[in-house]
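hi! just following up on the protien thing from before. the input was this:
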Amino acid sequence: MPFHKVYADGSPRPFFRGWLHGIATLVAIPLLLHHTTLMEFASTKVASSSESAESFMIGPSSSFTILSSTLPAPAAPGLYAIGMTLIFSSLVHLVPWRSARVLEVLVRCDKTGILAICGTSFYGPQLLVSGACKVSTTIAWGTVVLPVGLAIAGMWIGLGPIVFVGCAIAFGQTLWFYGFHVDDSTFFWHSLACAVLYGSGLALYVLQLGGSKRYWGYHEWMHLFVTLGFLVNARGLLLMSQYTDEICTGNDLL
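and the predicted 3d structure came back as:
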């Protein structure tokens, strides 16, 4: 199946394009699913008396299903976003789609996943899920929600690589907040390595250095840097989840 030489839009496809992300998907998704369970709960509407500890039913019971994850809460959104990006990238490059329209939608879903990684792993959720972190709405919206949200909207209406400026803003806030306020150089080096790897991948994507080759070209090198960035990003997320309460308590920068 992943041996087609031309995409549905007529552009050439190097032989190895998408294989790296396909292999990474086969590794990452089972790991994520291993930490995710589908749970069904029975819910009953109740009201409590203010004069006693008793409760009484005021409506019919119902059931609902949710996803439960054993991953650290601050890290989970970013890790799932990485998984989402790997899935869509693999679908784009490894499946011989016949419809150019379907291919374009999948490409944009792939880019949405990249922007989702920026929004979920670089600042906001880690602070918002922590009870010790009292982040103002202004900071959350100004440094993550608006830049990344506008980037996603811009990407879907056809804007080019400029949309990744939203990622740069969110990442800069993370480096500023965590990299310089955690008394452990490990996180700083994770942030720096992540910036170098993602930045190198973006540079290759924008500049198309070396052009596209028959077997391995600029896009495959970009995938290599980005995949390594995913690994460092995931490790940094897990590390970040250990420090959230620590750095937010008493922090006068929020």
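The helical segments are 19-34, 76-94, 100-121, 124-128, 137-156, 165-179, 185-207, 218-248.
The longest strand covers residues 55-69.
cheers
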